[in-house]
Q: What sequence folds into this?
């Protein structure tokens, strides 16, 4: 049973090596053949973790930590691995049309399929690693997959986006590595389990954890460190954007969770988790408002990712048991990870839909989306459903996560985070409403000649993913997760449930009318300020100051923790 | 002051220098040099940890040394990918700037 | 102050001075040359830290191969600096950034100064289990046995870096060749060097890989030397790099991680764990894996330095 942990990272990596060695039209075949196998392994591991709260351990080479390296699977690993397997398989189906297996080997197909397998292996390593340095190597694997995916189209702007991403991500890796070294120097181990028993609240711990966390935040593009994300995620081909936005940024988030909840849950203090939550709240508000201001559909989706990543960080303040002074890996953390899974499935579908719309219309200018309902009805439907999934109707994973978050906010008496959650729902509705209004407008120009035809398989793959996200709340979660209380799904047709969906839409409509981009009308001054702030934050100097400033703030917060 | 402590302090200073170069220098190639200085500063911190972990007849703890060797190879790979991207960017756009609004092609 | 201490201090001052030069120098080419010198000085620091394996790696890869890569990039990017110079942040911002960076340095320096001596270590653990790996060099034991997964994954990083660099090629050049063309005229100092050095270099490299089991050295360092020999031959235009579509090249590139993975999987059957070696066969198996790793490193590094293919293979 435990050997499955090894297979889950070996299978995709072996697939990538094999595909490289064989080459030609076999590359995509090998990648596609790996997918059912990887999916089966992930599901088998998840099944092996019942009853709830169990874990699987594999000692690599038979060496036990601290000298050796262990792989560990618990509910967090299982949840993320199954999500990853599902999303990658769907992306594989979607990408068959865009990256075909021709008679002669092509650059784009060759690179894409091998990178798709490699990202899978890298993510599974992140989810299973029980060792801080193995995390470092897997983070680097993710960088070396993600950056070529961004640059796949080879235009000057995507090359620049890729280079910006690479340099910022490398900075993040080095900061993480520095912290890892300091922890090893102080406690003589890299194993999460052993380290959690030895770690103490000393200055060296504060410095190390600060460097690691800031480095990982830069890789996760947590506000205000998102300078690389919009251009990178919007510039990649649709299938690659789906990988990057749905999965890659979750890898570094997952390591932050491992660090805070499993290495030093008792040393987080009060201020530092609040700071992480505040950055998350900033991401939600700032990212969503900027999504409203975009001219391009893919950029809107990218800014929506900036916003959605914010939700994940609400798990930190909400998981804090102030009396015991420790982070509890209970409801709030489950909410954070279910949110990650829901976003992964919905956002991958959304990028696929944006890609199909681009193909069908020959452009993705939001102002000229009119008529898309007729030109690409399925793509428009998938986009709409993905947007709805992000708002969170009662059967969806987002609803489930939100309920748990709200419950945690209630029980820990932190009302302000419930407010953030409500505001977030309204803002998400706002950009969705704006898009719907644009899409329903009559087509104001003749169909452009560049328009192409969407392959038949693509909408199916996207639709499957979006349904996953919409129905995630119905899974029997308490059989799998250490949930103290079950979440009951209200009747989706009840008045309460409808109202909970309708009021954010109404407020969102008003907001879209106020803040959205419209022709021949001066935008609000606030909208202009936002755009200026966004422009500054996407430049290196401002991003550098944000990074250094955050390092110092987080360091002080941790140093002052008793 | 002992040789390891001196190396550790050098490492700390290099981290600051590299960070400055990476964040402030506008030219990508110089940012890359900053990244390499930053990395080698971090490796030297591993060096002092290895040396202070001398025990059991070993002059230095082998575990941090192995990590540094892995790290050096990874840093080289990163440098190579960055250089390749940078040269392609220069070829495709005629400039080596990282400013998102410069040389951006907004047509469809 | 003893002589050795004075030398240590001057070495540290020199390292920092050269590092500062690489940051403040106006000319990118001069900065890069400074960085190569810096790499050599840092490998001396590693020798002083009694980490000879690291010193060899730093000299070969951190300074040598990286140096070749950066210098050729600086030459090609000459003339781009003036345009970018306008993007410097203002003096106030620079001072603020410098101050913030100094805070980070100060925090790390405080950690260094308060570090206990002797510190936490896994050296006794490594010593206790060294015999089971049948190796004499504890660093190789960590890389190839105790933390073999990291080394395997790092080989995958190298493999992905090659794919990443290749993926930047123009579509029409896919499957083609990168780097200088072969010249008919093989005169000149470099060509002479390129005929003289490789036989020596190959012997040294094999020696370093072989002794790596028991003394400082190993696949990384040996592979880097082999790579350097091949690069000299290519740069002297005695031979062209192979086309990236060539099967032999592809196999050489994946051989390291693939053989490592295969031997690791064999561990399931013969040693009860993934990446475990059966007793009595540990050393031969590790050397076997290292031979293929050396091959992959020796081929990957030149591919990374040469960049994406820039012409179709004829």
A:
């Amino acid at each position: 049973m435990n050997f499955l942990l090894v297979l889950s990272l070996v299978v995709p990596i072996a697939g990538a090596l094999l595909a490289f060695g064989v080459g030609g039209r076999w590359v995509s075949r090998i990648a596609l053949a790996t997918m059912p196998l990887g999916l089966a392994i992930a599901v088998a591991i998840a099944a092996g973790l019942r009853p709830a709260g169990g874990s699987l351990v594999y000692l690599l080479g038979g060496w036990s930590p601290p000298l050796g390296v262990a792989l560990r699977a618990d509910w967090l690993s299982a949840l993320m691995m199954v999500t990853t397997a599902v999303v990658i398989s769907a992306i594989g189906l979607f990408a068959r049309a865009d990256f075909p297996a021709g008679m002669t080997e092509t650059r784009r197909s060759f690179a894409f399929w091998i990178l798709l397998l490699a990202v899978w292996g890298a993510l599974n390593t992140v989810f299973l690693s029980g060792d801080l340095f193995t995390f470092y190597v897997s983070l680097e694997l993710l960088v070396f997959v993600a950056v070529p995916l961004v640059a796949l189209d080879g235009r000057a702007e995507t090359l620049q986006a890729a280079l910006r991403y690479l340099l910022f991500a490398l900075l993040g890796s080095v900061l993480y590595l520095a912290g890892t070294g300091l922890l090893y120097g102080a406690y003589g181990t890299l194993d999460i389990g052993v380290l959690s028993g030895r770690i103490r609240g000393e200055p060296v711990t504060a410095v190390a954890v600060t460097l690691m966390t800031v480095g990982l935040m830069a890789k996760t593009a947590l506000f205000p460190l998102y300078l690389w994300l919009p251009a990178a995620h919007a510039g990649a081909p649709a299938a690659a954007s789906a990988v990057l936005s749905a999965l890659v940024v979750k890898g570094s988030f997952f390591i932050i969770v491992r660090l805070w909840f499993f290495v030093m849950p008792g040393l987080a203090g009060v201020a530092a988790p609040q700071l992480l939550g505040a950055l998350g709240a900033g991401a939600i508000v700032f990212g969503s408002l900027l999504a409203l201001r975009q001219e391009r559909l893919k950029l809107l989706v990218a800014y929506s990712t900036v916003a959605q990543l914010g939700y994940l960080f609400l798990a930190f303040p909400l998981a804090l048991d102030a009396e015991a002074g420790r982070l509890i890996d209970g409801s709030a953390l489950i909410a954070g990870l279910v949110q990650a899974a829901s976003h992964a499935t919905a956002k991958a579908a959304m990028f696929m839909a944006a890609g199909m719309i681009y193909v069908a219309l020959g452009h993705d200018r939001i102002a000229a989306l009119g008529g898309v309902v007729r030109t690409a009805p399925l793509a428009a439907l998938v986009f709409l459903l993905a947007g709805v999934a992000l708002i969170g109707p009662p059967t969806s994973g987002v609803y489930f996560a939100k309920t748990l978050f709200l419950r945690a906010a209630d029980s820990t008496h932190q009302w302000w985070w419930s407010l953030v959650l409500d505001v977030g729902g309204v803002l998400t509705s706002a950009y969705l409403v704006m898009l719907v209004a644009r899409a329903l407008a009559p087509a104001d120009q003749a169909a452009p000649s560049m328009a192409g035809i969407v392959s038949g398989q693509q909408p199916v793959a996207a639709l499957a993913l979006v349904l996953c996200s919409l129905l995630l709340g119905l899974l029997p979660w308490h059989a799998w997760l250490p949930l103290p209380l079950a979440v009951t799904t209200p009747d989706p047709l009840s008045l309460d449930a409808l109202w909970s969906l309708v009021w954010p839409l109404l407020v969102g409509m008003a907001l879209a009318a106020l803040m959205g981009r419209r022709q021949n009308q001066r935008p609000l001054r606030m909208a202009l300020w936002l755009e200026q702030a966004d422009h500054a934050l996407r430049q290196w100097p401002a991003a550098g100051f944000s990074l250094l400033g955050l390092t110092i703030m987080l360091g002080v917060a941790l140093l002052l923790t008793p | 002051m002992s040789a390891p402590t001196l190396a550790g302090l050098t490492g700390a200073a290099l981290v600051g220098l590299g960070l400055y170069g990476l964040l402030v220098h506008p030219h990508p190639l110089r940012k890359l040099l900053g990244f390499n200085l930053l990395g080698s500063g971090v490796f030297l911190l591993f060096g002092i940890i290895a040396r202070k972990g001398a025990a059991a007849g070993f002059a230095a703890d082998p575990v941090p040394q192995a990590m540094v060797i892995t790290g050096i190879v990874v840093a080289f790979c990163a440098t190579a990918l960055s250089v390749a991207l940078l040269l392609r960017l220069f070829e495709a756009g005629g400039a080596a700037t990282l400013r998102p609004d410069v040389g951006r092609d907004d047509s469809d | 102050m003893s002589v050795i201490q004075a030398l240590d201090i001057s070495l540290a001052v020199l390292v920092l001075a050269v590092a500062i030069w690489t940051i403040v120098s106006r000319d990118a080419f001069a900065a890069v040359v400074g960085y190569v010198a810096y790499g050599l000085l840092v490998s001396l620091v590693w020798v002083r830290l009694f980490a000879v394996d690291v010193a060899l790696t730093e000299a070969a890869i951190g300074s040598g191969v990286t140096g070749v890569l950066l210098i050729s990039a600086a030459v090609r990017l000459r003339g781009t600096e003036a345009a970018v110079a306008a993007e410097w942040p203002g003096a106030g911002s620079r001072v603020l950034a410098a101050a913030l960076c100094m805070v980070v340095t100060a925090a790390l320096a405080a950690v260094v100064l308060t570090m206990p001596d002797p510190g936490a270590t896994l050296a006794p653990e490594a010593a206790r289990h060294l015999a089971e790996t049948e190796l004499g060099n504890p660093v190789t034991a960590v890389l190839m046995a105790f933390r073999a997964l990291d080394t395997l994954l790092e080989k995958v990083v190298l493999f992905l870096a090659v794919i990443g660099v290749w993926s930047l090629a123009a579509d029409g050049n896919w499957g083609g060749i990168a780097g200088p063309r072969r010249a008919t005229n093989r005169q000149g100092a470099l060509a002479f060097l390129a005929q003289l050095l490789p036989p020596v270099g190959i012997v040294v490299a094999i020696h370093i890989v072989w002794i790596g089991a028991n003394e400082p050295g190993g696949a990384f360092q040996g592979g880097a030397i082999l790579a350097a020999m091949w690069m000299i031959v290519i740069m002297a235009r005695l031979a062209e790099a192979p086309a990236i579509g060539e099967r032999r090249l592809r196999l050489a590139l994946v051989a390291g991680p693939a053989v490592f993975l295969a031997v690791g999987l064999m561990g399931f059957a013969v040693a009860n764990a993934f990446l475990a070696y059966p007793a009595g066969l540990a050393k031969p198996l590790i050397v076997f894996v290292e031979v293929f790793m050396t091959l992959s490193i020796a081929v990957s590094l030149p591919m990374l330095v040469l960049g994406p293919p820039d012409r179709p293979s004829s």
Q: What stands out?
A: Chain A has one domain: 3-559.
